[in-house]
Amino acid sequence: xxxxxDSRNQLISLGFKELVQTIFGEVSVExxxxxxKMEQAIxxxxxxxxxxxxxxxxxxxxxxxxxxxxxxxxxxVLIITGDVSSLPKLVSYGxxxxxxxxxxxxxxxxxxxxxxxxxxxxxxxxxxxxxxxDEEISSPSEFNLTKREIEIVVFLxxxxxxxxxxxxxxxxxxxxxxxxxxxxxxLKVKSLSELLLFEMENxxxxx
Length: 207
Fold this sequence. Notes:
Layout: E1 2-6, H1 10-24, E2 28-32, E3 47-54, H2 57-65, E4 74-81, E5 95-100, H3 105-115, E6 121-122, H4 124-131, H5 147-157, H6 162-169, H7 173-187, H8 192-202
Parallel strand pairs: 1-2, 1-3, 3-4, 4-5, 5-6
């Protein structure tokens, strides 16, 4: 796996390297400042780009805009400091993970396990921004979602996998996938990233 780390915070980034090596084995590391120059993906070798956020939202957004759309990489934002209110918007540029630098080792491990297995991970700082937006709130009933579909969508928005939802609700993974497919169709979304953007815009599942 190739890991591209923001060079402005090397000690923290080195911690990421060690953690990822512990979980996934061999990792190559390159430092970047801004938009990284990544290698062409070979077979299923994962490429992960970590951007440090210290209030530099516009800089990160600009860098993401010029990243080729077909680049086979996972994009992560490491939150060090600054106003995080705009960070959820970066999902539309392919960011699949937001990690708080002050998180515990257990949380960090969970974050990378989800991100590197093609799941989204949103730390509490970012998730709270999504839930606390002061926009008009819609209701799940407006989209004809069943009670079970609502439960599963809420779990998905909280970052849980199909396997975790299956265990939580006592359902088979196949049943969870079926409810997920049906709820996505009703909400007119095609992925977890689109589901998050939908929630940001409509506040359907805000508690």
